[in-house]
């Protein structure tokens, strides 16, 4: 176990057994017009050589692969037409995987061999100013999720499945946030709704994963 209770946010890698804090991020709201904004993430990613976390503000979304050597990254201005495979030691993108439907969320399978990338027609992190509200709110009424790609990491080949957005006027009994990402089940055979990163109460969210 390697806790660092004196570091907030952490600079040195935190791990317990085979599980580690693979990355964490903060969010900020960036105004785009008088009534539109987007929630942007800034990530701190691990370096497997130095065993430290370093800020990397190039990416809108990051998923770290088991083993903590590679991360799948999405560029700014979601949704995007390609997924980068980032080498965490060098900080360089080793390869880009193009997709024919734009994505805004991505996760690895537990063995690291596959990616599931959620497709959207609009940025799911957009925010709106509701009349009478003092701040920015997520558009909870309807999701613009269109489906998901299942991608073989080694070859880059993929298949896509479409889904109904649900919620809103189409189905008022379903309460949806605008971001509705998919993740693999534990055995990697099925897709399910993923759980968001956990917050420490300070606006920082964490992502846990396997060391090997």
Written overview of the protein:
- This protein is mostly beta strands and 212 residues long.
- Helix content is 0%, strand content 49%.
- It contains no helices and 16 strands.
- The strands form 3 sheets. Strands 1, 2, 3, 4, 10, 15 and 16 form a 7-stranded antiparallel β-sheet that branches. Strands 5-6-7-8-9-11-12 form a 7-stranded antiparallel β-sheet, with no helix packed on it.
- β1 and β2 form a beta hairpin.
- The chain is globular and about 50 Å long.
- The two termini are 15 Å apart.
Q: What topology does this entry show?
A:
Blueprint: E1 15-16, E2 19-31, E3 36-47, E4 52-56, E5 61-64, E6 70-74, E7 80-87, E8 92-108, E9 114-120, E10 126-128, E11 145-152, E12 158-162, E13 182-184, E14 191-193, E15 198-199, E16 204-210
Strand residue content: over 45%
N-to-C SSE string, H for helix and E for strand:
EEEEEEEEEEEEEEEE
What value does the Rg take, in angstroms? Answer: 17 Å
Roughly what is the average pLDDT, rounded to an integer? 82
Fraction of residues in helix: under 10%
Q: How many helices does DSSP assign?
A: 0
Largest sheet, in brief, is: 7 strands, antiparallel
């Amino acid at each position: 176990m390697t806790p660092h209770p004196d570091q907030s946010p952490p600079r040195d890698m935190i791990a317990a057994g085979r599980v580690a804090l693979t990355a964490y991020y903060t969010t900020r709201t960036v105004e785009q017009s008088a009534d539109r904004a987007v929630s942007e993430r800034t990530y701190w990613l691990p370096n497997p050589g130095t065993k430290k976390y370093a800020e990397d503000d190039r990416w809108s979304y990051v998923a770290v692969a088991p083993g903590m050597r590679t991360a799948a990254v999405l560029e700014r201005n979601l949704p995007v037409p390609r997924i980068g495979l980032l080498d965490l030691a060098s900080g360089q993108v080793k390869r880009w995987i193009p997709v024919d439907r734009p994505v805004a969320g991505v996760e690895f399978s537990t063995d690291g061999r596959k990616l599931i990338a959620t497709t959207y027609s609009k940025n799911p992190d957009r925010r709106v100013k509701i009349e009478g509200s003092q701040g920015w709110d997520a558009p909870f009424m309807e999701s613009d999720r269109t489906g998901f790609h299942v991608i073989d990491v080694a070859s880059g080949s993929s298949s896509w499945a479409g889904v109904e957005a649900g919620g809103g006027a189409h189905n008022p009994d379903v309460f949806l946030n605008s971001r509705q990402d998919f993740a693999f089940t534990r055995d990697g055979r099925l897709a399910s709704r993923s759980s968001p990163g956990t917050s420490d109460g300070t606006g920082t969210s964490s992502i846990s994963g396997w060391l090997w």
